[in-house]
Amino acid sequence: MKESIFDSHFLWGGAIAAHQVEGAYNEDGKEPSTADTLLVNEERFEHYGEYINQNKYYPSHKAIDFYHCFKEDIKLFAEMGFKALRTSIAWTRIYPKGIEEKPNEAGLQFYDDLFDEMLKYNIEPIITITHYETPLYLAREYGGWKNRKLIALYEKYARTIFERYKDKVKYWMNFNEINTLAIMPALGGGFHESFDDPSRFQRIYQAAHHQFVASALAVKACHEIIPDAKIGMMLAGQLSYPYSCNPDDVFANLKQSRQSLFFSDVMMRGVYPAYTTRMFEELNVQLEMKEGDLDIIKNNTSDYLALSYYMSSVVMSDTSQLKKIGNMSIGVSNPYLQTSEWGWQIDSKGLRIYLNQLYDRYQKPLFIVENGLGAIDILENETVHDTYRIDYIRKHIEQMKEAIQDGVELMGYLPWGCIDLVSCSTGEMKKRYGFIYVDIDNEGQGSCKRYKKESFEWYQKVIASNGEEI
């Protein structure tokens, strides 16, 4: 077999998140997080972060029951040849309200058992400290990340899990898709804001500053407690193109790109970039900082940049033409691209472009920790013929190869929802991403049995060939 473009340490695997797979939302001392208040479809964010109505169905409460089935699932991941699995720790399993003096031992033990099972098969745990799961108590009583008190609570939680899992976990990330805070603060920050309220930016960017300080303190703690570990930041990949070569469209695209890359600029470079002075003036934002905040951020930058990548968007200066086009993106349709069943435009070449942009900007390792195709899968004869998913991932792997040859330093590739899970954007089970089909529907009905899709064996060969056989 010829030498692979991917080096021998390249981390092939998959990605999931606690609230989208675990279920058991109130077992073994766990209390609700904001994710446990999410409904399905049109009602998804109706009472997000407020309360749980026992007469409603909440998909995260059961999810795919990974909490009880993880050994079976990890075995399937090992059969595919996974070298790494990204998942998250549910904050409320460790500190149920977020304010407790001592952690919940049952929650700590669950992740001990999970990581032990992964390591049994030589699967590297890639762990997100919090993945859209603010403790519900902190959201309701503290106002989420608008409140500076969450910095210390987060740091305590991070230090607890670093100490507990220092011999098991060597790759960490702080906040999942931290830049979504600017678009959907309910998900990223645990507090609601109306898009019609121009004063929302003051609260959003103040919350962002609190998360920057908390993240930097987590980096510092991680390096102290686990010197051989790497801790990165994670960005929701939002590649965009200008609608035309009209300078107004080009500049509109530059401004939109900066709204996303602002987060990585601070966390990768350690300083607030120069463009934020005018940006904050125009948005009427005046950040409150404590002495030492900027030094903490400057001295504790992220070791690598992790990113999700699903689609690209097109931006124009005529804002009346812009609309939601999927994955929390605003723009107009790109006539050169195909579209998924959920309206997300498929742009594999865009992955190469985006990886080059990010690496040119930061010169630090990049890690693709989410990528995949959400689709309606039909189970026939105990399998799914998901050639469309194979085609999607194959084309993105081809562009990863090109990016590496362009000079990009890429740590690994972890496709999203390697086993079917609850969709974050809609709460549906029918929007499936996995190589493994889980027999559960949108109402939580089904056997919960696992079935290998056609893509299972295909991805197995990809990993075995280190990306050469695709």
Task: Walk me through the structure.
- This protein is of the alpha/beta class.
- It has one domain (11-241, 303-308, 346-464): Glycosidases (TIM Barrel, Alpha-Beta Barrel), CATH 3.20.20.80.
- The chain is built from 14 helices and 16 strands.
- β13, α13 (387-406) and β14 (410-413) form a beta-alpha-beta unit.
- The longest helix has 26 residues, at 200-225.
- It is globular and about 60 Å long.
- The two termini are 13 Å apart.
- The model has no long low-confidence stretch (mean pLDDT 95).
- One of its GO terms (cellular component) is cytosol.
- One of its GO terms (molecular function) is beta-glucosidase activity.
- Pfam families: Glyco_hydro_1.
- This is Aryl-phospho-beta-D-glucosidase bglH.
SSE topology sketch:
Blueprint (H helix, E strand, L loop, with lengths): L10 E5 L2 H4 L44 H15 L3 E5 L2 H4 L10 H16 L3 E7 L5 H7 L6 H17 L5 E5 L9 H5 L10 H26 L4 E7 L2 E4 L4 H23 L5 H9 L9 H7 L5 E4 L3 E4 L7 E4 L2 E3 L6 E2 L5 E2 L1 H15 L3 E5 L16 H20 L3 E4 L22 E3 L11 E3 L1 H11 L6
Parallel strand pairs: 1-2, 1-14, 2-3, 3-4, 4-5, 5-7, 6-8, 7-13, 13-14
Antiparallel strand pairs: 9-10, 11-12, 15-16
Helix pairs in contact: 2-4, 6-8, 8-11, 12-13
